[in-house]
Design brief:
With about 260 residues, the chain is of the alpha/beta class. It is built from 8 helices and 9 strands. The protein is about 35% helix and about 20% strand.
Length: about 260
């Protein structure tokens, strides 16, 4: 697995300085205003994103509500709302936009070519067309990038070592979250499955109400374990339900994030 990252703290600090005019020796005339564009629900646990983000700002000397103002905008799980929310932030105006997920980044880039945008985060911003390169992003976008090679294959290998009897796995995913990384993910997964003698099935959902039926489908297909694909819109927003159902159905699972 290869991970390439644009340093988060350095990127966001540089973007703040750029957006507030401090880089060229100007004295900011007002308190900087940051827009956070998120596809998730406003009821999302603050410990997942909001608290770590604000803690990082404090470590860099920015005090939310005092020396910096943060405008949170949540799409409440509806991706179609992101363009309007991005336009709203630009209209306020904000000095910088922190955008989550590829859909959020695209919405922010469509809304402005001048307001600095910080990605938090993109699987592969170069491949997805968000930046020109990791070393020289160009345009008005920078941030955090995670380039992962053969993640699907590595996950299956770990899962097989944890569950030796594994013969069939499921891949639980939100089809709306399909992106340019998926062919690479499934290519690695398929190669590992062939070498380990394991079959795999994709179990797709499109709304929260599909989660429980998805487990019934996995049980019917005699899935021995399953992988959860990254999805802040539905699966991560309802991760407690996913974990509970996995325990109820006694199906081992591997998740994309530590939380």
């Amino acid at each position: 697995m290869k991970r390439t990252a644009i340093a988060w703290r350095a990127a966001i600090l540089a973007a703040f300085l750029w957006g507030s005019g401090i880089v060229n020796g100007q004295t900011p005339a007002k308190v900087p205003r940051v827009g956070v564009l998120s596809p998730t629900k406003s009821s999302e646990a603050a410990s997942l994103q909001r608290l770590p983000f604000e803690r990082g700002l404090r470590e860099l000397g920015w005090l939310p509500g005092q020396s910096i103002i943060i405008e949170y905008r949540y799409a409440e799980g509806d991706i179609a709302r992101l363009p309007a929310l991005a336009a709203e932030l630009v209209h306020l105006p904000v000095d910088i936009i922190v955008a989550r997920t590829p859909q959020g980044i695209r919405a922010a880039q469509a809304a402005t070519s001048t307001v600095p945008i910080v990605m938090a985060a993109s699987n592969d911003p170069v491949q997805q067309g968000f930046v020109a390169s990791l070393a020289r992003p160009g345009g008005n976008t920078t941030g955090l990038a995670i380039t992962v090679n053969d993640l699907g294959g590595k996950q299956l290998q770990f899962l097989k070592s944890a569950v030796p009897r594994l013969k069939r796995i499921g891949v639980l995913m939100n089809r709306q979250m399909m992106n340019d990384q998926d062919p690479q993910f499934f290519a690695g997964l398929s190669a590992a499955a062939n070498s380990l003698g394991v079959a795999f099935e994709t179990i797709e959902i499109s709304q929260a109400e599909d989660i429980a039926p998805a487990f019934a489908a996995m049980e019917k297909q005699r899935v021995d374990a399953f992988l959860v694909r990254g999805d802040p819109h539905i699966l991560e927003a309802n991760i407690a339900q996913v974990v509970s159902l996995a325990a109820t159905h006694r199906i081992p699972a591997m998740y994309p994030w530590r939380t």
